Amino acid sequence: MSALQFDMAKLGQQLTGWDAKDGSAAEYTSAGSNYRTYKPSVSPTPSGGLFISTKLDHIRGMAADDHAQVEMEFAANGFIASSRVAMTIQGHNTLDTGLVAGAAGTGGTVFGGPAVGAAATAIAELSAKVLNSLSKFITDISETGGRANFPAVVRMNMNCIFASLIPQTPFAVFGAIGAKWAALGGASSFLGQPLTNELTTPDGVGRFNHFQGGSIYWTPQLGAHEVHGSIRDKWSSVGWERSGLGYPITDETTTPDRIGRFNHFQGGSIYWSPQTGAHLIYGAIRDKWASLGWERSALGYPTSDEVDNPGGGRLNTFQHGRIVWTPAGGAVVR
Questions:
Q1: To 10 degrees, the CA torsion angle through 273, 277, 280, 286?
Q2: Vertex 50: Cα angle to 46 and 54 (nearest 5)
Q3: Residues in a beta bridge with 42
Q4: Per-residue DSSP letters for 149-167?
Q5: Nearest residue to 149 via CA among 80, 91, 87
Q6: What is the dihedral of CA 19, 127, 75, 167, to 10 degrees?
Q7: 288-296 long-range contacts, Cβ below 8 Å, gap at least 24?
Q8: Labelling 281: which of 115, 150, 184, 295 has CA 20 to 30 A away?
């Protein structure tokens, strides 16, 4: 079981990117005022959770004289254990909420989006405390702009931090499959979280994990390769590794013409493009197409799987023609 993790890139994306201050901060506009959030420090806790601390600036012209320090501690299950906000306005220490107990032990938390349920309640209570404490100060300085909006910006950042948590998973990913998953970006990649433990394939030869966005298959001879999307769906439809294609020998890869995608397998290939979908091609017909230049040949992409030819033999149709194979004549373009 993996520990709670944090997706720094996702937090940056929610805040328009870590492009400010030499890549250490994000700058954005809210309610007509400019704000800056610095990359947070992230530390594991002894219980398997995370302690996250970040600084926010309200930028007024060339000066950033309004600041907030936000600290959030999460339990291993993603619940908010405690949080704290300290704010400095016009260079004066205006507010320190102190540690506020969160929502540990209560339900309703959902990862991957805005805080909901117990997490939303904990964040709302803290931001309300910030707003209430600042309201008299804001009224005294007759502030209706960025400073008045600062508590809402603090709350938005807390929601974004929560949405960037990567929860622990009950499924085991290890060995060569785990190394491949990690190399692709782990839970932050297009594969996402595992949906299964590592399992033995039905043919008894290989191993696999299914993920939210695809699968990784491994054999001792071929190593670990990922397959996903329409290509994975096509491979699944013909029988996975027990089909004539066998196991993948490449990850899904962009074609040289930059339009389509493909996986090569032990017994052939599956090619996909937005215009033609995913189709399998193998044997002498595949060899012929390869000799002509694959998708960059005059034929373009396959528009069918290999099928029986009404006149005998086998065929694949393509965007601009077809290849027909017969025992007597071999593979011929028509």
A1: -40
A2: 135
A3: 52
A4: HHHHHHHHHHHHHHHTEE-
A5: 87
A6: -50
A7: 288/323, 288/325, 288/331, 288/332, 288/333, 289/316, 289/318, 289/323, 292/333, 294/255, 294/256, 295/255, 295/256, 295/257, 295/259, 295/260, 295/271, 296/256, 296/257
A8: 184
Residues in the chain with pLDDT < 50? 1-2, 103-116
Instruction: Report residue 262 as tokens.
Output: 């493909």
Q: Look at residue 280 and give its three-state secondary structure.
A: strand
CB 162 within 8 A of CB 119: yes
Rg over CA atoms, the chain: 27
Dihedral sign, Cα of residue 182, residue 183, residue 185, residue 190? negative
- Which pTM does this prediction carry? 0.58
Pairing of strands 92-96, 253-254: unpaired
Q: What is the pLDDT of residue 74?
A: 87
- Predicted local confidence at residue 232, as pLDDT: 97
- Tell me which H or E stretch contains 224: strand 223-227
Count CA atoms within 13 Å of residue 125 on its CB side. Answer: 16
Q: What's the confidence (pLDDT) of residue 111? A: 37
pLDDT reported for residue 89: 80
**What is the helix (H) or strand (E) element at residue 9, kind and residue range?**
helix 8-14
Can you tell me the distance from the alpha carbon of 262 to that of 232, in angstroms, rounded to the nearest whole number?
Answer: 10
Give CA–CA dist 80/83, Å, rounded: 7
Give the integer Cα–Cα distance in Å for 300 and 296: 6
Which 3 state secondary structure label does DSSP give 177? helix
| Measured CA angle at 215 (ends 174, 6), to 5 deg | 60
- In whole angstroms, give the CA distance from residue 21 to residue 3: 31
Dig out the tokens for 73 from the structure: 């501690």
Q: What pLDDT is attached to residue 286?
A: 98
Residues 6+ apart with CB under 8 A from 209: 171, 173, 177, 181, 194, 195, 196, 197, 198, 199, 215, 216
User: Looking at the DSSP assignment, which residues form a beta bridge with residue 86?
Assistant: 69, 96
**Residue 157 main-chain phi, psi, to 5 deg:** -65, -40
Question: Rounded to the nearest 10 degrees, what angle do helices 146-163 and 117-140 cross at?
Answer: 160
pLDDT, residue 166, reads 81
